[in-house]
From TrEMBL, chain A:
Keywords: 4Fe-4S, Electron transport, Iron, Iron-sulfur, Metal-binding, Repeat, Transport. It comes from the Bacteria. InterPro entries: 4Fe4S_Fe-S-bd (IPR017896), 4Fe4S_Fe_S_CS (IPR017900), Cys_rich_dom (IPR004017), FTHF_cligase-like_sf (IPR024185), Helical_ferredxn (IPR009051), LUD_dom (IPR003741), LutB/LldF (IPR004452), NagB/RpiA_transferase-like (IPR037171). This is (Fe-S)-binding protein. Pfam families: CCG (PF02754), Fer4_8 (PF13183), LUD_dom (PF02589). Gene3D superfamilies: Alpha-helical ferredoxin (1.10.1060.10), NagB/RpiA/CoA transferase-like (3.40.50.10420). It comes from Pseudodesulfovibrio sediminis. Residues 303-333 form the 4Fe-4S ferredoxin-type domain.
UniProtKB/TrEMBL annotation, chain B:
Residues 9-206 form the LUD domain. This is LUD domain-containing protein. Pfam families: LUD_dom (PF02589). InterPro entries: FTHF_cligase-like_sf (IPR024185), LUD_dom (IPR003741), NagB/RpiA_transferase-like (IPR037171).
Length: 716, 209
């Protein structure tokens, strides 16, 4: 659970997780195994269209939640089930406590339910003097340890067999080995007894099917079946988001849920309960069943134009499985009750701003979660939006406000950058790095060297070298982004050189400024919008075939976020859409549009590996183009392990969480060095800054370059 | 290969992937013999309930002692078949029952059942068990032996959807998809079978046409 009061305390907590070697190794192994398992489970399936179908069906369900609830209730009641509605967690818990009282139940067995975690049900029931036992093995373990879950599907993933062994020794009063098989058997016996004694069973529900008034439960252990069979009273607590019109909708989700959660094609048990079924220990031979439908803000959420998509979540936990930040710090630090990407969002809505305010900053915006989500939720976007909302409510921190103000004024921003060039003189080295970190950085930032500002920004170079191309085949506009303009202009120049040789006529609109992503990352939505409008005005969209940028982050931001940022202004929105449709990244343009051939480059045979920038591979779905270009450009491409995993830059993220950034970079560079390549290529100046700085700090011989630089150099 | 054969093959392949034991049989009699044999071999003839050999709390340990003899539970079978199984069990020295599951919650050795349908693309059995005895026999047994007529194998869940709906509308209903044995990976993500339910799932594919 999230306890930190401010960012500083939160960072201290994160550091503790980073120092937990067991946790780190487990999560690493898990992340790697998960990726392979998931790919295998979805083999030969059209995952995208399945996800789209789920998203669509859940959206429809969300819109019709009222009606679905009425149908569900009517059908369930007709089949002898009692249906309750709870507007918040406290009400749900009170309803359940009352059911226990009315039916004279004393002992309760529970099968894992995130919804019950959300309402902190156990506490309330225990306060009423009831004995509650979790029966899911992982849940039981953390219940005995008085902890919260650290993963939605594997709640005890943070614990070692030794910790479990010690715990079971305490619980049974008998010495236990740390052998997993045996521990599982012990749990089997200890819990069996609990089922027998229990008079009430509590489950969640994965599906609430309106057309039948029944529920569906997805488990591997089989505990939900025992919990819903043995005790004479069964209570199922579920969120409104579980409502679906038909069995078909449930079966569709079932195709994705286990595959996405654990890489299983299906879980061991899927249980469908409709109606008050037989119970031989009840007086009338019928089980007393209660459904408690929880709102807790959900009905409001489905009416929000942006956040309604949260309703699509099927709680598979995949967004945590792929999150590089979760992988470093684990669920207790990457969520409050719900964890991972969706956890950051749900924490805000279910548990409030105070619990969420630090958490939402801990997202590097790598989009891995969005890419894997079973409901196709744009998680990173929602996380950023919540960050912005909280800042709007609580006031904006000075640095982000300042950056926002500066970026709004392009001239001021560029003047400051030019001034920085002079300011850095005393600390700048000839090799393009700053020797000592400036005072504003603490020593946590020393994991990478920082680059100096270039002698001459690209925009000045361009003014002096207006390139004219006769008989152009393509007319393009260049968007440089701040880093390539002011830090790495040589990357832009390399692109210009190649374009010139390929009959591409170029324009560089001087009024362009920073793309605005950094301020959006800091939660400055207003400034992000202002900057977008400036850039949209700077470009005469209809005068070019393409708008090219060599920065993956800029490209993804321009393409996907601009139209959203100006959506409230129809004229600008139309312009932004046209603009966005023309935006293309360097590698795709050169490989897919110019279609350069290997024969145009000198073959050096030099070994090169690749780092796929998040905003290129996931943001723009570009995978093959840069790798093909490396080969065409005369180099030998060697694949790097986890090539599409974030390098830890994340713009301002690396400033806010230097320890996490350093760890992500560390992993990346270990993988890079293991390839044995001398050159590391990539497609984003931010990644280059991070990777180069890190390699410099470890004194590595590996050279980092933008794909454009290699192509320009090897061009015949 | 006929489409039926390929469904069977797919079903077998998928069920075995989740560590189910799949055997093809020609007659119901073979199913009974298989079950008796299995019960005989089980735990080298010892009378142990899974987990009882571990260090348990006194209370949980007591429960283990309630089991006196090897038990095969086969509720919900057609009469003639049950009679035959009961006779064979008696001969082998096992107790065969079709009710009273609640008195044996420490565990029974084998639950013997018939599946309604098989779902090929995941190797799943579909069992409808609104009656508690049948349901429990698939939950508290250490080994679950389930007969699946090959004519009942369908390609995927959408193909059983109609059947499910028909049954669900005749409430009350309690239906299960069962795929492999009960499993957990909650400790260090290491797979362990039989955490609450059966430790082994044996599927007998009955060639019925
Ligand atoms: S965008 Fe990346 S860092 Fe942020 S929550 Fe998603 S996976 Fe985690
Ligand atoms: S947000 Fe998406 S990936 Fe995360 S748990 Fe929900 S459905 Fe799964």
């Amino acid at each position: 659970m999230q306890k930190a009061h401010d960012l500083k305390e939160y960072r201290d907590e994160l550091r503790e997780s980073l120092d937990n070697d067991f946790l780190r190794t487990t999560l690493d192994n898990f992340a790697i195994a998960y990726r392979a398992g998931r790919a295998n489970a979805f083999k030969d399936m059209d995952v995208r269209s399945l996800i789209n179908d789920i998203a669509e069906s859940k959206d429809i369900a969300g819109k019709n939640a009222d009606k679905l609830f009425r149908d569900f209730k009517r059908n369930a009641e007709a089949a002898g089930i009692h249906v309750h509605f709870a507007k918040d967690g406290a009400e749900a818990n009170a309803i359940i406590a009352k059911i226990a009282k009315d039916t004279g139940c004393k002992k309760i067995v529970k099968s894992k339910s995130m919804t019950a975690e959300e309402t902190l049900l156990n506490h309330d029931l225990e306060d009423e003097g009831l004995e509650v036992t979790e029966t899911d093995l992982g849940e039981w373990i953390i219940q005995l340890r008085h902890e919260g879950p650290s993963h939605m599907v594997m709640p005890a993933i943070h614990l070692s067999r030794y910790q479990v062994g010690e715990l079971f020794t305490e619980v049974t009063g008998k010495e236990q080995d740390a052998e997993i098989e045996k521990l599982v058997k012990v749990a089997r016996r200890e819990l069996r007894q609990k089922y027998i004694e229990a008079d009430m069973g509590i489950t969640g529900a994965n599906f609430a099917v309106a057309e039948t008034g029944g529920i569906g439960l997805v488990t591997n252990e089989g505990n939900a079946r025992l919990v819903s069979t043995l005790p004479r009273v069964h209570v199922a607590l579920m969120g409104l988001d579980k409502l679906l019109p038909s069995l078909h909708d449930a079966l569709r989700i079932l195709k994705a849920l286990p595959r996405n959660a654990t890489g299983q094609q299906i879980t061991s048990y899927v249980t469908w309960i409709t109606g008050a079924n037989e119970c031989l220990s009840a007086e009338d031979g019928k089980k007393e069943i209660h459904y408690v439908m929880l709102d807790n803000g959900r009905s409001e959420l489905v009416n929000d134009p942006l956040f309604s998509q949260v309703n699509r979540c099927v709680r598979c936990g995949a967004c945590a499985n792929v999150c590089p930040v979760y992988r470093l710090v684990g669920g207790h630090k990457m969520g409050h009750i719900y964890i991972g990407a969706i956890g950051l969002i749900l924490t805000y809505f279910f548990h409030g701003k105070d619990k969420a305010k630090n958490l939402v900053q801990n997202c590097i915006n790598c989009e891995a979660c969005k890419d894997v989500c079973a409901g196709g939720i744009d998680l990173p976007r929602l996380i950023k939006d919540i960050h912005a909302r909280i800042q709007d409510e609580d006031g904006h921190p000075l640095p982000s406000m300042l950056l926002g103000k500066v970026l709004k004024n392009r001239k001021l921003f560029h003047t400051l950058l030019r001034a920085a060039k002079w300011g850095q003189k005393p600390v700048a080295e000839k090799d393009g790095f700053i020797r000592h970190l400036p005072m504003i950085f603490s020593k946590e930032h020393s994991f990478r060297a920082l680059p100096t500002i270039a002698e001459k920004p690209f925009r000045d170079w361009w003014k002096e070298n207006k390139i004219k191309v006769k008989n152009p085949k393509h007319r393009v506009a260049l968007f440089s982004g701040c880093v390539q303009d002011f830090v790495y202009p040589e990357q832009m120049q390399a692109a210009v050189e190649l374009f010139q040789n390929n009959e591409v006529s170029m324009t560089y609109p001087m009024e362009q400024s920073c793309c605005g992503l950094p301020v959006q990352m800091m939660g400055e939505m207003k400034a992000s919008k202002d900057v977008a409008i400036q850039n949209l005005r700077a470009f005469e969209t209809d005068a070019y075939d393409y708008i090219i940028t060599l920065c993956a982050s800029c490209a993804a931001h321009l393409k996907h976020n601009y139209p959203k940022l100006v959506a409230d202004n129809p004229r600008l929105k139309a312009k932004a859409e046209e603009f966005a449709s023309k935006v293309i990244d360097y590698s795709s343009f050169v490989n897919d549009v110019l279609k350069v051939e290997a024969s145009a480059f000198t073959k050096t045979g030099e070994k090169a590996t690749y780092h796929a920038p998040c905003h290129l591979c996931r943001g723009l779905d570009v995978h093959e183009a840069p790798r093909e270009l490396i080969e065409k450009g005369g180099l030998e491409y060697v694949e790097c392990t986890e090539e599409e995993v974030c390098c830890g830059f994340g713009g301002t993220f690396s400033m806010k969480f230097p320890e996490l950034s350093a760890e992500l970079l560390n992993k990346k560079l270990n993988n890079v060095e293991a390839t044995g390549a001398d050159t590391l290529l990539t497609d984003c100046p931010g990644c280059i800054m991070q990777l180069r700085g890190g390699l410099k700090a470890r004194d590595s011989h590996v050279k980092v370059k933008h794909v454009s630089e290699v192509l320009a150099k090897n061009k015949k | 290969m006929s489409s039926k054969d390929s469904l069977c093959q797919k079903f077998t392949e998928k069920a075995e992937l989740v560590s189910a034991f799949v055997t093809t049989i020609k007659t119901e009699d073979e199913a009974l013999d298989y079950t008796i044999n299995l019960c005989d071999k089980k735990q080298a003839c010892q009378l142990l309930v899974s987990g009882c050999e571990e260090g348990l709390s006194d209370k949980a340990g007591e429960l283990c002692e309630t089991k006196q003899t090897k038990v095969i539970a086969a509720p919900g079978l057609k009469k003639t078949l049950y009679k035959e199984l009961a006779a064979k069990s008696e001969k082998a020295g096992f107790n065969c029952i079709d009710s009273g599951m609640r008195d044996l919650l420490a565990g029974i050795d084998i639950g013997f059942t018939y599946a309604e349908y098989g779902i090929a693309d995941t190797g799943t059995l579909m069992l409808d068990c609104p009656g508690e005895e049948l349901r429990l026999s698939t939950m508290i047994s250490e080994f679950h032996v389930c007969v699946l007529p090959t004519s009942k194998i369908k390609a995927n869940t959408y193909e059983v959807e109609k059947m499910m709906l028909t049954r669900m509308k005749k409430t009350p209903d309690y239906m299960a998809y069962i795929t492999g044995a009960s499993r957990t990976a909650d400790i260090e993500r290491v797979l362990a079978l039989g955490v609450h339910g059966p430790l082994e799932l044996h599927i007998l594919l009955l060639e019925d046409d």
